[in-house]
Description:
Layout: E1 7-10, H1 20-35, E2 39-44, H2 54-67, E3 73-76, H3 81-93, E4 97-101, E5 112-116, E6 122-127, E7 131-136, E8 144-146, H4 154-164, E9 169-173, H5 180-190, E10 196-200, E11 203-204, H6 221-226, H7 231-239, H8 254-260, E12 271-272, H9 275-287, H10 291-301, H11 312-316, H12 323-330, H13 335-338, H14 355-370, H15 379-390, H16 397-408, H17 416-423, H18 425-435
Parallel strand pairs: 1-2, 2-3, 9-10, 11-12
Antiparallel strand pairs: 4-5, 5-8, 6-7
The protein binds one RNA strand through strand 7, helix 4, strand 12, helix 9 and helix 16.
Amino acid sequence: MPNNKVVTRFAPSPTGHFHVGGIRSALFNFLFARQNGGTYILRSEDTDKERSKKEYEDEFLELFDWLGLKYDIFFRQSDRLELHQKYIKKMIDDGFAYLSKETPTEEGQREEVIRFKNPNKKVTFNDLVLGDITVDTTDLGDFIIARDMNEPLYHLTVVIDDFEMGITHVIRGQEHASNTPRQILIQEAIGAPRPIYAHLPLILNKEKAKLSKRDESVPPAIEYKKRGYLPDALLNFMALNGWNPGGEQEIFSLAELIEKFDIAKVQKGGGIFNPEKLEWLNKEHIKLLSREEIEKNILEWLPAEIQNPKLIPIIFERISKWGDVKEMVARGELDFFSMRPEYEKNKLIFKNILPEKISENIKQAINVLEGLNEQDFSQENIKSALMSIADKLESRGELLHPVRFALSGLDKSPDPFIIAEILGKNETLSRLQEAI
RNA sequence: GGCCCUAUCGUCUAACGGUUAGGACGGAUCCUUCUCAAGGAUUAAAUUCGGGUUCGAUUCCCGGUAGGGUCACCA
C-alpha cells in the first residue's frame, strides 16, 4: 500500500501585507488536511530577495497563530537553495533547461538566465473545482525558471518544493489556474508526480476585482485582529465565501467546518467580500461566548478609567466586535459615566411642553426615587417608580426625556432606567436636582 | 488583444430536468419604545440574452453579451 496520506500546503509570499483572501486559501488547506488526517504545511515563498521582508512574514505568522490555523510544518524557500540548485543542474544536464543569452531591457536584468526548454504541447489537467482544463503551452515559450544558479524563480521552486514535501493536493486561488500548465511541464521534466489541483474562486472587492495587497477597500488581514474580530467569526465568514455545505446553517465553529467541509461543493465563480455580513456573523459569534468571556473582553477594550462592569450591558447591545467598544468611547457615548453632562437647558424640553411643567415632572421623579433604598436602586425598580408617574402624563416622554437627558446629556442614549442604575442613587438625584 | 475561467435577489448562496425558485446579510414597513441599541413580525428583491435537446429547462449543449484571471529576469 503506497503512502496516500493527504499533504496540503499554503504558500504565501512575504512581499506585502497579507490580505484576507489568503485566509480562505489557508483555511481550506487546513480543513482538508485535518478532515483527512493529513499534514498541513505552511511555506514562506521568499525567493524574491528584494521584495521579501521579515516583517511581512512575521505578520502572517502572527495572523495564523491568532486564527488558530495551526500548521504542522513551516518552511522558508530561501532555506532550500541547495535543493533548488541540484534540480536546475539536473534539468540542464538532462536537456530540459538551458543557459540563455539575453539582451537586458530593464535595470537589474541579467545577460544570461536559465530558461525551460518548452516541449510545446497541450496539457490537460483535472481540477477538483473547475473540471478539466486544457491549455496549449506553446504560447508560454521557453519561460525563465531562474535568473542564475543562486536565484531560482517561482514556478521552479513551487514544483520542486511541492514534490520534495510530498504535497498531494494543491489548493490555491484561481489566479494560479493559468500557471498550472507550466508547472506541470516542469513536473514532467523532473519526474515529479502530478498533485491533485483545486483552484478556489477569487474573493473580489466591491469593484469585482481580485483582492490585492494594495487594496484600499478591504484592509490587510491583520487589521481584523487589531479591530477585535473573533477568529472563529472571520474563519466562518471566509469559509462561506465560495463554499456552502448545502443546508441553511450560517454559524459554524472551526470544528464544524473541519467536519463539514467538502471541496466538491466549492463554488466556481468569484465572490465579493461583504463587510456587513462579517459584522453580523461576528456579533453572532460573540453571543455564543460565555458571559464571563464577553465581560472580560469588553472590559479589556475599555480605557482603564472606566473599566466598570456596570457598563457592560449597554455596551454589549451596541457592538458587533470588540473594537467597537473603543469607538463608543471615542464618540463620547460613555462620557456620562465618568463626568457630569453639560448641555443647554432647552435640550431638557420635550416637544413643546412648558419648562415649568418639565421641572415639576423632574421633582416628582426625585420624590419617588428618594423612596428607593440604595440597594433597591435597580433598573427594574427605577423603571416601575418612574413609569408610575410617566403613565399619568399625556405622554411618557414628558418625564422620560428630561430625566434621560439630565442623566446622559445625549440626544441618543440608553434608557434612563439603566443609566440611573449605573450612576447610583446619589449621582442620579444630584443630576436631576441640577436639571431643575 | 491571445489563452483560461465564470454567470440565481444589491451581496453570500440553496434548488443531484418537474419547487409558489428557498435561506442569510443588507433594505423597507410595523410592533416594542422619550431617543439610541437590542428584540419580534411582515415585506420587496434573482435564474444575463438568443438558439437548441426534452413532455418539461435555473439545471444539459451551442452562440452572443458581461465580468474576472493570466500572459515578468513577482509570487
